[in-house]
Amino acid sequence: MSYIKLAELTEKMVVKVATLIERENELADAHNKISDLRDNDTASRNLAATSEALQKERARAESLQDQLQASQDALAAARAASSAEDNERVSQLSAELQGLRESTSRTIETLKRQLELANTTAASLRKELDASNSERDAVQAKLVSSASPVVNQAHQAQNDETDAKLAELRVQLVKTKRELEASQAKCRQLEALQDVSAGINVAATVQPIAPAGVAQVPAVAPTIASHLVKYAKMRKTGLPEGAIRQAAGRDGVQLPEGFFSGPIITEAGPTNPSSGGAAETS
Q: For 14, phi and psi rounded to 5 degrees?
């Protein structure tokens, strides 16, 4: 009997031990699940923080992209405005230059016609002078061959009249010669000015306007202000100072002091015309 009870107790103990082991396993599983849940919760919090940081970075990237787009739009608008202003300046300068060329051409043609007329007048005066000289020689020959005082007096009066006519013709010839030389000099000056204006590249002389906020590359130190090159070339061709000053006045350009006293330079530099320009240095 005692063995049977011991066996039953042992069996019960085995069952209880098995139950305890099973419960211990269940507790271990529960503990593992709790640990996993804790890990998942930490990961979730980390993921949430990462997501929040990612959202902030995305918002920042979008803001930077909007700023970049706005800058590009402003730059494009500035370039378009600068291009339109440059085109307008080129058109205006081209029109002024074309008007100057046409006016110079008309003046040259007028001077050429005046020159031809002066040549014709000079030739006619020379013929009249030659005829008067021949007439005077004839009168003097008659005076020599004539013995009558009355005839000599008449011939002397005719000779005096011829001399007066000759003197008047000489004065007219000298005056015509001077006018002819002046017309020739002016014609040469205008032709030189026309050659200079023909060699001017209006588009190249217009300095592009840099858009606001865009840095410019520093240029080499200029040798002469670009807006003075035109007048330096005029001076180089031999035009008088008065004509150059008159041309500068029509263009609204103030020539600096010493412009006509220094050496002639026609190399342009990127200077600012508003500063009045430096004195001509080359």
A: -60, -45
Average pLDDT over residues 97-103: 82
Sign of the alpha-carbon dihedral angle for 18, 23, 28, 29: positive
Q: Is the dihedral of CA 83, 87, 90, 92 positive or negative?
A: negative
| Spatial separation of the C-alpha atoms in residues 201 and 204, rounded to whole Å | 5
Which bin fits 91, alpha (ψ -120 to 50), beta or left (φ > 0)?
alpha
> In angstroms, what CA-CA distances link 24 with 30, 50, 139?
10, 38, 167
Q: What whole-number distance in Å separates Cα of residue 87 and Cα of residue 65?
A: 32
pLDDT at 217: 43
Q: Determine the distance from the C-alpha atom of residue 47 to the mean position of all C-alpha atoms in its chain, rounded to a whole number.
A: 61
**How many residues in total does the chain contain?**
282
